[in-house]
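Section handout 9: paired folding examples.
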Amino acid sequence: MDKLPIGVQSFEIMRTSGFVYVDKTRWIHQLATEGMYYFLARPRRFGKSLLVSTLKCLFEAKRELFEGLWIAAPGRWEWQAHPVVVIDFNGITLDTPEKLQWGLQIALQETAANYGIDLQTPLLLAQFKELILGLQRKTGQPVVVLIDECDKPLIEHLGKGEAGLVTGQANRDVLRSFYGVLKETSVAAALRFVLLTGVSRFSRVSVFSALNNLNDISMHEDYAVLLGYTDAELQTYFAAYIEGLAAKLDCTPAAARLMLARQYNGYRFSENPLRVYNPFSVLAAFDHKKLSDYWFATGTPTFLVNLLRERQYAFPELEGLQVSSAVFGTFELERLAPEALLFQTGYLTIADVVDNEYTLDYPNLEVKTAFTEALLLATEGFAAPASSHVLRLSRYLQAGDMDAFFASMQAIFASIPYDIETKRDEAYFHTIFYLAMAASGGQAQSSVLTSRGRIDMVMTFPDRVYILEFKCNQSAAAALAQIRAQGYAEKYRASGKKVILVGINFSTEQRNVDSWQVTEV
């Protein structure tokens, strides 16, 4: 088998050292032949750096690296070498605007030295212009500019208080002027292709005001699967690894694919319904022969969690969140929209689109369980030792052990100190209950609409469905009566699964679940 390219971001190394390369050159060809100025946003660890590396090798006409790929077919590519300028913000110090400028100058000087050009001007913007014009004159070919993680000088300082905001704003001013060089008349005439990648779609006014001719393809239907793995690609390129995973999990390859899809598939970046897998997590799962939270573990979203808490966001409402398309282009340092941040960083994705209204949801089980656990751990007063009870919740429901389930749930609520000032109402209890269930790995859905009302929570398993209704300072019997009166079970009768009704009452005096009633339809 070809090796798994875990952490490999160099196209040349991937193609010369026996790593699996999922052929994306059909879409890369479309990019390179149909346009000139592009911006692409994708979550971290999604293949942006590999895309930049592939484009670099393509425009440098390293034809031997592309043998056997779609673009290598006769007549598809000109194989004319172009000078390429690559600026990777992963390798530039971003602590201050002065260090940012210094790092950019070093990057420009290194590229100039590689092409035997001696930059004469000491100023950053003039150096950038001098480099591009000098490369065009020396080679006789228009220049390619590839900028990876172009927004890192800004997002690196999010969540770091007022000082971080000031640094981010100063870095933004540097970037705005720097990127603007690419639109200057003499420079534009010397360019062949420009691509900027990043995580966030900062508005054009804030960062790209001087480079307002960028084609933002972040949500373009034609490039929905440019990064990430489709289900078909997974089966084509990783069949042997799927078989290895299936053997370790003691199941069939088909069952292993279903588990992989539930754990890592689901990212949707446009109205195109195609979804892709997180490549980093899939590769790690094949390597470890185990399904785990690999992507989430590479970066803790502390700032994002704190922002949601500050805005007093209703965590159960993150599922099925409905927004307009305006949300996707409103990322600003001074006015951070949680919905835009959640989507752009990959914690929510597009679940459905109707007219101009987008429904967002967690892309897969990995993100849902790990993110809701992070939200739960950040809940005021929640004790980390209670996490052991959280892990058991879904297991108890799957087995139908309701006594053990409620004993663990009561232990979770009891772990929260009495002196915490948070308002203990039904919404509070509902939030903790939901986060605990979602973090346990169960398929928890909050506020599920039916034709006759809204179910507080639904838990779905392969052979059974739990319908839960919450009351506060009333009775479990009243909650169960509401489920029956509203006909909540009707939606699930044709599923072929057991339908179990659960009425739960919370007591503000006890600050816990004080009663429950369970019955099977």
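Moving on to protein 2 of 2.
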Amino acid sequence: MLWNIPPTPFLQRDWLVLLLIVFIAAVLRLGEPQIVEYFHDDAMLATLAREWVTGRSGLPLTGILSSTGIPNPPTSVYLMGLPFALSPDPFVAIVFIMLLNTAGVAVFWAMLHRYAGRDLALVAALTYACSPWAVFYSRKLWAQEFHTPLILLSMGLLWWAAQEKRCGPAVVCALPLLLFALQIHFAAWALLPAFGLVLAWGWRAWPRRALLVGALLALLTLLPYSLGLTQTLQTDPERISAAVARSDAAERLTISPQALIYAAQLLTGYGLEDAIAPNPAQAENLRVSVPFSPLWTLIGLTALLGAAAGLAQHSTRRLTVLALVWGFLPPLLLTLRLTTPHPHYFIACLPAYALLCGLGLTTLWRALPHQQVARNVLLLAYGVILLSQAVAWRGLLRWIESHHIAYPGFTTPLSLLNPIRQALDDKRDVVVLSQGMAWNLDHEVAVWETLLSQAACVRTLRPDGYFVQPVGPFAVLRAPSAPSEAVRGLYDRGQAEIFPERPGGGVYEIRRFAQAPAWDGPPILPVEAPPFQNGPRLLGYGWQDSLLALAWSLPQGRRGDDVQYSAQAFDAAGQRLAQHDARFWQSGHWCAGDTLITYAPLALTDQARRLTVSLYRLLGSSGFETVPLADGSTAVIISLEQP
């Protein structure tokens, strides 16, 4: 057995307690579901999951890129495939995550009720259900926010396997589920020592065959990422070393208490204002709107009492050690500044903090023998503290929707993006004007491609250098990040529909076009050329006032086949006079029949007699490769008339 606490049976009244706990957890996690962030990482994960379940891509072997540049494992994509198989709407996936985290509270209660006692389970589950940090990190399509329920389920299965006689199925399921869940976010691997304790205490009770099968299945969950990371390193052998080099070498392996401060904040509920609004003035306004927060210090004191009392009692010593390792070893590891810590690294530690609170309050109960009234008053007082956290959370939600918060704070909530989405939900083409157009760098690209799932085609342009002419009616959505006169002001015609962000923020604008605006730059002269083997065909060129414009016809594209384009001018002797190289419009934006005009400054000289246009792919540290045309030639060669 793991510890000397006899299993507690589930009585009929216990199920009523569970219903109450689940109701509280659901109200907080599912309340105001539209006041939720939907930003870059969320939308990229949605893109990968949706492309996979719709057959537009094969089985993903990696997930989205981490902040270090190293790709994440694909297990988050696999899990999100479930809601996206039901609907392409990201909001369905968001609700799925809210429900999953609500179920996580129920799993937490059940494992504690069975193996730690009825009273402890009640207090710990209520603490976890009401924790502002736990609620905050239970509502977003962000990988960090949905691994904890699976981690709790795998922990519960291991407890069952160590405490009950018929444990074979639990072992077989627990080990692969654990490694699947830990791959969802790199920070979760810091929980391995906690699981190692459970394995060390309980493995003698497990059938060896079940242990072997579970271990083999667990290793199989690592196979896709092993293949994906291998492919990544074959393409870019310096990916990991470059990620290490980009980190702050001056701060690595230095002692910093910041991770432990975050742990204390997550335990008590303090500090959420700084995560929502990093601006100090806004964070202070948020703190003023939470009048009951001084009471939350008592939650921290209860956890301290639980740690001390749990270690002092033989029956709860192992349980307490597990809670301490589970909750505090991850932040302790990051006091060495192996990487810059963030509060979301410790989301999976929140149940351990709630467990310590349960140990603390039940210790106080035991100090009041045969004093049922006093016990009830104690539970009521603790419940009032938790209620103040629930009330504070609801107040924070209202504040979030009514105050502009600059990135990296809480970005424009989905509730304010939905009116834009509804205005464009007429299945027509959409052109988004944004600060950038790279799927992995600019959040507007991924956000609107996934929110506008009903549109025939959604593509994004940066402010300069690219102009697209769709074949039929379309709408232009200008994001707040796009400057005025973006794309030479060609899409600024007509009356705009205005959709403000939160007060103090920018605005989104929608303009509708029956047909594409005409190009107002150098007149385009036609060119006869076969298409490039990746699909685009050069239609013509214009060169005037040191501005070179190239017109292209585009096929239907798919994300990932990105190339560069090069335009070079030569004199009669073959001497290169001028050259322009730039990224071609990313293939994920190509829509069948579109005409694309790329334009860039290129000095015009009287000696220019020939212009060559080519496409090529960058190959990381190994250089580049030219994309040939359909006839095998490497470039379109254009003869220039004598000025």
